[in-house]
Amino acid sequence: MAIEHKILFTGTMGAGKTSAIAAISEVIPMRTEARNTDLSVGKATTTVGLDYGEVTLENGEKLRLYGTPGQKRFEFMWSILARGALGLIILIDNSRPDPLADLDIYLENFARLIAETGCVVAVGRTETHPAPGLDAFAQRMEARGVICPVVPANATRAEDVLQLIHLLLLQLESRTGHEALR
Ligand SMILES: Nc1nc2c(ncn2[C@@H]2O[C@H](COP(=O)(O)OP(=O)(O)O)[C@@H](O)[C@H]2O)c(=O)[nH]1
Ligand SMILES: [Mg+2]
CA–CA separation, 94 vs 81, rounded Å? Predict the structure, then answer.
């Protein structure tokens, strides 16, 4: 049987979780969208439950991709989704008022998963919103004793999303001496 792994995408509403999974999934992504009742966000629909997709790596390993619900009232689901995951990709929307505070929320809520596996921080919309810079995110993590790659990425572009997965897997390899991927 082919080895299967689970990777989790998280981030605020509009950060690109649905886009990232849709960009690379080989199966039609499953989404649970509903009418957005949060008037502070200019989106007609939003993910209330979760996103799901699948992608097969060159070595034949299958990745199950899960997107967490973005809204705070669904935080209770995060720990359920995190169970057994191979790692976390945190999508940051740099056009939001305080992207570093957004990062803190995910570092805090997924602290255990990050400590046990790995994470990658992907900063989106840097073309239009260059600040805070990547260094600021790295410093914020360092302050918490977390070391993860921070890269600019557009969640709507498949090559960017695959690069994020690649960075996550590389990190796991170096941490575990390839164990996680065997
Ligand atoms: N420029 C840019 N647009 C993005 C990026 N990620 C998502 N978007 C756009 O932002 C909107 C919301 O993305 P979505 O994937 O629904 O966010 P989600 O709420 O995290 O699932 C969509 O119109 C995307 O095309 C990004 O990294 N850069
Ligand atoms: Mg979504």
Answer: 25
